[in-house]
């Protein structure tokens, strides 16, 4: 950077040389002085440049992602690696930066809807009743599964500097008319999808709505609006051996780091896309099976590194295929977990089990929300800023230690007596009860202007 500045100044001097000879001499003397006395800085500059141009990292190969290779086997839950070696250092070729959108920055300066607090509001919350939603999941129906403290349902998100509009279901349906809204990701985004379906379905008569069976792509359809609200199971965004929503393996995850095409064929025609991905990268190393590998030879890489590859491949698809005038794309940031009560109450030994109120410590941040992941995601999303809007739920969800199912959900495996005698030991501190935290996520989202206009997003979202 400094080097650039210097050469820029030199050009100017050579033009103005005749007018300011003394000044030029003085400045040149200053530069010589700087060079001689600041070798360390200069060295750093050169190192920085080397890094950018990869002169030194001769071993780095850049892979162009999302190339169709019809002869290639699609990964499924039976896929295996023939052998596994260390990570080769291959990276995803960077997407072209989309021109940054000044409009968006302007809008977000007006009010950060993601900065605020949870206030008790039993007058307007919950936005629907658990038993009234036929699409409720047994994983999230906490009241049905024995939770008796219902304070978690009576919380409204209140941004510090503005008010969100009230939820209006007919308004939302009008915006969705003739459109496909699709959530893509893992079980956290499935929770957000169920929340959205529960919020929306109440006004549709039972004979005018359908829900397709659980499949990688599950579709809720409202006939009179010719609209769908869909969920695509793709926990790792990239193609993987875990793309079956029921039979998947968390322990040996194999991804195709350079392709999202399998999923993209399902999501490419959606009008509004809401992506997430995080927790599936947090369980130890991931196996990479690059498209160019013909012999099933995998590489192994840590979760963060693998997620960066998959996000890069996803970003490549967004950058090359999304026309922001025709499609809205959102990315939901990481969803926090509450496994260690000592993080919000030093000295205690529990987790989310038995927690009945939110954390009221401003900016509380637990160890479940990984900062290096946040930085990596920020970096990738900033390159897509004109095409992807961030739904930054991390901070607001951090406060909600009371919002998880803990033991009040259906568990698929039989619980052992020693587990039953220690409820904290099998508590689910990852997902969110419904009605509950994810309903917030549906609320402002519903108010994004679906006429594709960034600038008016907050104007429409805010109460005047
Ligand atoms: C709301 O909560 C207040 C205070 O706990 C209580 O007095 C009131 O009856 C509640 N209202 C409803 C509608 O549940
Ligand atoms: C919701 O929006 C519709 C259409 O804009 C309006 O007619 C209706 O009164 C609103 N309902 C509520 C409860 O605000
Ligand atoms: C229904 O919506 C789809 C897009 O999702 C559109 O292609 C189709 O023309 C619509 N049908 C009617 C009858 O409006
Ligand atoms: C594994 O190796 C065998 C024999 O070399 C080959 O036939 C098979 O296709 C390989 N598996 C994959 C997934 O490429
Ligand atoms: C989300 O919010 C957190 C703090 O609340 C911030 O550190 C982070 O950079 C934000 N991420 C994105 C992608 O905007």
Structure, briefly:
The protein has a single domain (79-463), classed as Rossmann fold (3-Layer(aba) Sandwich), CATH 3.40.50. Helices cover 30% and strands 14% of the residues. The chain is built from 13 helices and 15 strands.
Give a description of the structure:
The protein has a single domain, classed as SGNH hydrolase (Rossmann fold, 3-Layer(aba) Sandwich), CATH 3.40.50. It is built from 13 helices and 15 strands. It has helices at 2-16, 21-37, 39-53, 102-110, 169-176, 187-201, 261-267, 303-321, 371-382, 394-398, 417-420, 437-446, 457-461, and strands at 62-63, 83-86, 91-92, 116-120, 155-159, 180-185, 209-211, 217-222, 227-233, 254-255, 272-276, 286-288, 297-301, 328-332, 388-391. It has a seven-stranded mixed sheet, with helices on both faces. Strands 2-13-12-10 form a four-stranded mixed sheet. A two-stranded parallel sheet has the order 1-3. A hairpin with a 4-residue loop joins strand 8 and strand 9 (227-233). Bound molecules: 2-acetamido-2-deoxy-beta-D-glucopyranose (5 copies). One 2-acetamido-2-deoxy-beta-D-glucopyranose binds at residues 178, 180, 226. It is a single-pass membrane protein. Its main location: membrane.
Write the layout of secondary structure elements.
Elements: H1 2-16, H2 21-37, H3 39-53, E1 62-63, E2 83-86, E3 91-92, H4 102-110, E4 116-120, E5 155-159, H5 169-176, E6 180-185, H6 187-201, E7 209-211, E8 217-222, E9 227-233, E10 254-255, H7 261-267, E11 272-276, E12 286-288, E13 297-301, H8 303-321, E14 328-332, H9 371-382, E15 388-391, H10 394-398, H11 417-420, H12 437-446, H13 457-461
Parallel strand pairs: 1-3, 2-13, 6-9, 6-11, 10-12, 11-14, 14-15
Antiparallel strand pairs: 4-5, 7-8, 8-9, 12-13
Bound molecules: 2-acetamido-2-deoxy-beta-D-glucopyranose (5 copies).
């Amino acid at each position: 950077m400094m080097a650039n500045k210097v050469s820029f100044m030199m050009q100017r001097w050579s033009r103005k040389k005749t007018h300011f000879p003394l000044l030029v001499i003085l400045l040149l003397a200053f530069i010589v002085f700087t060079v001689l006395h600041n070798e360390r800085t200069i060295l750093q500059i050169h190192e920085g440049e080397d890094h950018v141009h990869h002169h030194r990292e001769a071993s780095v190969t850049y892979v162009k992602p999302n190339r169709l290779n019809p002869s290639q086997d699609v990964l499924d839950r039976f896929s295996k690696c023939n052998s596994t070696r260390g990570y080769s250092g291959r990276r995803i070729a960077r997407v072209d930066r989309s021109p940054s959108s000044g409009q968006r920055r302007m809008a977000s300066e007006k009010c950060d809807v993601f900065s605020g607090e949870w206030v008790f509001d039993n007058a307007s919350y919950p936005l629907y009743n658990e038993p009234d939603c036929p699409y409720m999941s047994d994983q999230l129906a906490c009241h049905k599964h024995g939770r008796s403290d219902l304070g978690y349902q009576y919380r409204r998100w209140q941004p510090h500097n503005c008010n969100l509009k009230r939820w209006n279901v007919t308004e939302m349906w009008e915006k969705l008319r003739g459109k496909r809204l699709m959530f893509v990701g893992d079980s956290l985004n499935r929770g957000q999808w169920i929340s959205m379906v529960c919020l929306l379905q109440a006004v549709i008569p039972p004979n005018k709505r359908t829900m397709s069976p659980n499949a990688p792509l599950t579709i809720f359809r409202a006939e009179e609006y010719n609209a769908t609200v869909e969920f695509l199971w793709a926990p790792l965004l990239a193609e993987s051996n875990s793309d079956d929503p029921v039979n998947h393996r968390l322990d040996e995850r194999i991804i195709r780091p350079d392709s999202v095409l399998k999923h993209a064929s399902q999501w490419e025609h959606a009008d509004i896309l809401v992506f997430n991905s995080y927790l599936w990268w947090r369980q130890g190393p991931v196996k990479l099976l690059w498209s160019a590998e013909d012999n099933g030879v995998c590489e192994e890489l840590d979760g963060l590194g693998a997620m960066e590859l998959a996000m890069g491949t996803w970003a490549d698809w967004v950058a090359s295929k999304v026309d922001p005038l025709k499609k809205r794309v959102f990315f939901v940031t990481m969803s926090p977990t509450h496994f260690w009560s000592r993080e919000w109450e030093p000295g205690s030994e529990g987790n989310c089990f038995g927690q009945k109120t939110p954390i009221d410590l401003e900016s509380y941040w637990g160890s479940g929300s990984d900062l290096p992941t946040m930085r990596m995601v920020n970096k990738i999303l900033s390159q897509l800023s004109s095409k992807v809007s961030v739904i930054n739920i991390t901070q607001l969800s951090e406060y909600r230690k009371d919002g998880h199912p803990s033991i009040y959900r259906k568990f698929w495996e039989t619980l052992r007596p020693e587990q039953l005698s220690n409820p904290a030991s099998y508590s689910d501190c990852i997902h969110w009860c419904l009605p509950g935290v994810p309903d917030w996520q549906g609320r402002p989202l519903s108010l994004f202007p679906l006429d594709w206009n960034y600038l008016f997003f907050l104007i429409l979202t805010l109460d005047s």
